[in-house]
Amino acid sequence: MEVRILQSQELLPALHLVWEVFAEDVAPSYTPEGVAEFQKFIKYDNMRASAERGETIFFGAFAGADLCGVMAVKSIGHICLFYVKKDCQGKGIGRMLFTSVYHFCAKQLRVSRITVNAAPEAAAKYQHMGMRQTDAEQNVNGMRFIPMEMYVRPADLPQQSKNRTGWIAGGIVAAVLGLVLIVAGGTVLIKNLYKINQQIMAGGIGNNGKQWDDGDPMNPDSPDWDDDDPMNPDSPLWDERDKYGDDGGETPGSAGSSGLSGVAAVPEYIADDLSYEIEEDSYTYTDDKKQSMLVSFNVQYPVLNGLDAAVQEKINAQIKKCAMATVDEIYTNPSQEVKEKVLGSTNPILASVVTYKVSYANEQFISIIFEDMGARGSQEDAYQHLRTLNIGLKDGKVYTVKDIVNLDGDFVEEWLEIMRDEAGEVNFLAELDEESMISTLSGKSIDGNYVANFFVDKDGVEIGYDLNYVNGDPADLKFVWVTAPFTFEEIKPYQKDMEFWKFFG
Questions:
Q1: How many angstroms separate the CA atoms of 404 and 461, rounded?
Q2: Best exposed site among 40, 82, 208, 296 by fewest CB in 10 Å?
Q3: Strands 113-118 and 78-84
Q4: 44 — phi, psi (to 5°)?
C-alpha cells in the first residue's frame, strides 16, 4: 500500500471514489438538501481550482494502480474529505492516510492543530486516531457533523536524520514532552499544567510558600498574559501561525512534497483479500482528580478479527501488552524508581502517547511498529521509544531478532556498516565491540540501552536499536532509534528460522 499526494489527473477518479462511498455510507443520514450541498462541494471544477491554488491537498492510498482511499486537507489543517472504498475498509488504510496527513500538517503546513467536521458515524474512528469532540452535533444546510480537533506542535517534532528511520533526539526532553501534552489533551492539558504549577507554587513541597506574581507573564491569569501571543492557546493566532513554514521548501500541494518521515515513510505491505480484519482500539485516560500531578495516556493499537478464536485472543493480548508497556511500567505496576521520581519532582508527570503502523500483513504473519512518547515521572524524564511486534498468525508465536538471523561476526559486520550509513556517522556505535553487539541484538540490553528491534515491510526487513543513552554519555550522538534495512534477497545469507522466512514466499 502506497500513500502519496495525488497528481492533477488523479483528482477526478478520486472524487468519483468519494461520491460512491458517500452515497452508500453517509447520504442516507442526510436530508436531500444536505446531499445536494455535498455534491456542490465536491464539484470537480471547484476542487481542481482549490488544489491548483494550494488551498486543498489531496492524498490517495494505492494498492498497486488501484485507488483505495482519499483524504483531503485544507492548508489551514482542516480535513475536508476522508473516504475509503467499501471493500478496502477494515484493513488499516484509513490509519495510513490519517498518519500521512498528520505528518504533512506538522512538517509542511506547520499548523498547530488539525480539525474536521466528522460525520456522526465516523466520530468514533476519529477519536481512536487521537481527535476529540469540541462541540455538539451540528446540522448546516442538511449536513450533519460533529466538530473535532487534534493539536500538534510542528516546532516540537524531532528532526529527522539523513534517512527516514534514524531519528535525531536533539532537544528531545522539552520537544517530546510538549508534543505529548498537546496530543494527549490539547489546550486543557496545557492549562492544567499551569494550574498544577500554580498549586505547587502556592504550597507544594520545597517551594517555600512562594505565590504566583500577578504581573508574571507566565501566570495564565496575569493581565500580562497576552491574548495575541501565539503560545497562548486562547489566542486567535494559535491556529494561524506558520502555516507554510519558512524553510524554503516546496509549497503545499506541489508534486514533490510528501511530508512523510520516520515511521510514516516505512513502505508498508498489506495483502489483498485477507481472511481477517485489522481494526483499531485505544486506551485513553486522564486523571482529572489529581491536582498535584499530570497523568495522561493515549495508547492506540490494532486489533485482529477473523482468526481462529483461541489464537486470536492470544495475538490480541500480545499486541495490547506491547502497546501498553509504558503505561504498565509507570502507572499500573510502577517501579520504586518511578515512584521516587514522582515524589521528588516539582512538576510530576506520567504520560504515554502511543501510535502504531502495520508495516506488513499477510495470511501467516503481521509486523507492527509502535512509537511511544511521554514522561516517566517528571518533565526531565521525557522519552521517545520505538517498539516492534512480529507475530505468526497460525500459532501466535512472537519473533525476535535472535530468532530470525544468525548473529555471528559476518552478520554484525555488514549490519554495522548499514547502521552507520543510515545514521550518517562513521563513529555510530563505536562504544560497542562485536561481542556486545551480538549480546544486545540477542535481547540483552545494557542498562536499558540498545534495545533490539526489527520489523518487516514491503521491501524487506529492518533490524536495529531503540537507543536510551543516559544524560551526558559521550557515546550519545542524539539518535532516538536507528534500523538497518535489508532486502529479502540481501538477508538470505543470514537467515536462521526457515519457517519464519517462508511467510514471505
A1: 10
A2: 208
A3: parallel
A4: -55, -45
The beta-strand segments (E) located in 419-469 are: 451-456, 460-466
pLDDT at 206: 26
Write out 375-419 in H/E/C secondary structure: EEEEHHHEEEEEEEEEEECCCCCECCHHHHECCCHHHHHHHHHHH
Q: Cell numbers at residue 272, please?
A: 489483498
pLDDT of residue 131: 86
Question: Mean per-residue pLDDT for 140-163?
Answer: 66
- Are 326 and 298 contacting, i.e. CB atoms less than 8 angstroms apart? no
Q: Are 426 and 420 in contact (CB under 8 A)?
A: yes
Three-state DSSP state, 437: helix
Q: How far is CA 340 from CA 65, 391, 420, 479, in A?
A: 55, 36, 37, 27
Among candidates 55, 40, 48, which has minimal Cα distance to 10? 48
Question: What's the longest Cα–Cα distance across the chain?
Answer: 71
Distance CA 160, CA 233 (A): 27
Q: How far apart are CA 72 and CA 55, in angstroms?
A: 10
Question: For the segment 330-378, what is each residue's pLDDT rounded down to a tens digit?
Answer: 999 998 888 888 888 877 889 898 989 999 999 999 999 999 988 888 7
